[in-house]
Specification:
The chain is 28% helix and 15% strand. It contains two helices and five strands. The chain has helices spanning 48-65, 86-96; strands at 3-6, 21-24, 27-30, 36-37, 42-43. Helix 1 (48-65) packs parallel to helix 2.
Length: 104
């Protein structure tokens, strides 16, 4: 199977030898995101809620660039520096995954 490299200006440009996403057959693998604004290439310096929103907006941009939505996502991973931020992150996360949330 041939792989298709996904690239959009709705997410930060990769800073290393990786792609924003790769499509193989009917599967899409989206790279992990950090809280960087793709318009300015600057990190979001707000609290965990603002950072979570930026990360999910970056993922949304990648998904939308290939005609997908968060409803198509089957698995996510979340990495936090401080577990005390979990509930605030989760508050934002749930606004993106409203129906049939993915495995996490």
């Amino acid at each position: 199977m041939e792989k298709e490299i996904i690239k959009t200006n709705k997410a930060p440009t990769p800073v290393g030898p990786y792609s924003q996403a790769v499509k193989v057959g009917n599967l899409v693998f989206v790279s992990g995101q950090v809280a960087i604004d793709p318009r300015t290439s600057s990190p979001v310096t707000g609290d965990i809620k603002e950072q979570t929103k930026r990360v999910l907006e970056n993922i949304k941009g990648i998904l939308e660039s290939i005609g997908l939505t968060f409803d198509n996502v089957v698995k996510t991973s979340v990495f936090l520096r401080r577990m005390t931020d979990f509930s605030k992150m989760n508050d934002v996360y749930t606004t993106y995954f409203k129906i049939k949330p993915p495995a996490r």
